[in-house]
Design goal:
With 353 residues, this protein is α/β, with parallel strands linked by helices. The protein folds into three domains: 110 residues, 4-hydroxy-3-methylbut-2-enyl diphosphate reductase, catalytic domain (Cobalt-precorrin-4 Transmethylase, domain 1); 119 residues, Rossmann fold, CATH 3.40.50; 84 residues, 3-Layer(aba) Sandwich (Cobalt-precorrin-4 Transmethylase, domain 1), CATH 3.40.1010.20. The strands form three sheets. Strands 10-9-11-1-12 form a five-stranded parallel sheet, with helices on both faces. The protein has a four-stranded parallel sheet with strand order 3-2-4-5, with helices on both faces. A three-stranded parallel sheet has the order 7-6-8, sandwiched between helices. The chain is flat. The two termini are 22 Å apart.
């Protein structure tokens, strides 16, 4: 339990960069925020839009209802599919019932879905490296369930029944690189003709955040990883930190920090964690010698709004112009929202997150 600030004796904070929201999370949060603005509540979302408790709670306050079955969504009600990707039958059900539907799947997950569909269509057995029960893994494997074999550990590769024909290797995007590499090496050793994509399935943001943390963690007495327990990339960050730091804490908020922290503390955040949480953690740590930012790479990736949302916004823009008796010029500003921060869309009144 967190206590008073009296026990804190933090010398310095090493702040990893990059950290926090990735392009896919930015896109998904902004998309759901637009849905809340466009439609009367409730707006429905299949699964959590991203795996962060505070983000989900904020949307719930704004009238979003999160469901685990599309059948729970009334016909005609607006529906969004989460960033983690959905099974084909879920997408089909979401489009039925006259619902305005927006699919906020991360484009990097879509890439893996496409790779799996193509390889399965060519007769491959697909070895899929992922975590059983994770929403991304469930949605991906459902693309070609008869062709895919889930592996979570290196030993699972050796235990696989002998496949017929060619073998391909794909992965859940949020895996730690080291975890994936060990399994990939085992698969290549067993299947010398193994097909792999020319560009890694691992999310650039996951890889970058882990690389930044590897620079930070060895210099720290404690590493604080900000993010929710059901966030795969957050859990992966904690594992990366544990390899080279004596103490690792995963917290949702600054209130969960213990009051015995001392020395040098590293701070990072999972790809679904708002930057406001980082600021609150640093304020709680109150380092005597301030904060040192440890940069590894600058990210400038941008994913535009989902196509279904762009269509809705264009239609609204033109309808509004017609109602006011003017000719529509240009397009709705949200169709190109590169310079709009997701955290601003999520909490327009300045509240948390």
């Amino acid at each position: 339990m967190a206590g008073s600030l009296g026990g804190m004796n933090v010398e310095r904070v090493l702040l990893a960069r990059p950290r926090g929201f990735c392009a896919g999370v930015e896109m998904a949060i902004k998309a759901l925020a637009w849905m809340v603005r466009i439609f009367e509540p409730p707006v429905y979302c299949y699964h959590e839009i991203v795996h962060n408790r505070l983000v989900v709670e904020e949307f719930a306050r704004q009238g979003v209802i999160f469901v685990d079955d599309v059948a729970e969504v009334p016909a005609g009600a607006p529906l969004m599919l989460s960033a983690h990707g959905s099974a084909p039958d879920v997408e089909a059900a979401a489009q039925a019932g006259g619902r305005p539907m927006v699919n906020a799947v991360c484009p990097l997950v879509t890439k893996v879905h496409h790779e799996l569909k193509v390889r399965a269509g060519r007769g491959y057995t697909v070895v899929y490296v992922g975590h059983a029960g994770h929403e991304e893994a469930i949605g991906t494997m459902a693309v070609a369930p008869g062709a895919v074999r889930l592996v979570e550990h290196e030993g699972d590769v050796a235990a696989m029944p002998e496949p017929e024909g060619a073998v391909a290797l794909l992965a859940q995007t949020t895996l730690p690189h080291d975890e994936w590499q060990g399994i990939a090496d085992a698969a290549k050793a067993r299947f010398p003709e193994l097909w792999m994509p020319t560009r890694s399935d691992l999310c650039y943001a996951t890889t970058n955040r882990q690389a930044a943390l590897r620079e930070v963690a060895p210099r720290c007495d404690t590493v604080v990883v900000i993010g929710s327990e059901n966030s795969s990339n957050t859990v992966s960050l904690a594992k990366v930190a544990a390899a080279s730091s004596p103490r690792v804490l995963r917290v949702n908020t600054a209130d969960e920090l213990p009051d015995d922290l001392a020395g040098v503390v590293g701070v990072t955040a999972g790809a679904s964690a708002p930057e406001r949480l980082v600021e609150e953690v640093i304020a709680r740590l109150a380092p005597r010698e301030g904060v040192e930012v440890v940069p590894v790479v600058d990210e400038d990736e941008y994913f535009p709004p989902p196509p279904e949302l762009r269509d809705i916004l264009r239609a609204l823009f033109h309808a509004t112009a017609v109602l006011h008796g003017v000719a529509p010029e240009g397009q709705h500003p949200a169709v190109e929202d590169r310079n709009v921060a997701a955290v601003t869309m999520l909490a327009p009144t300045g509240g948390r997150p």
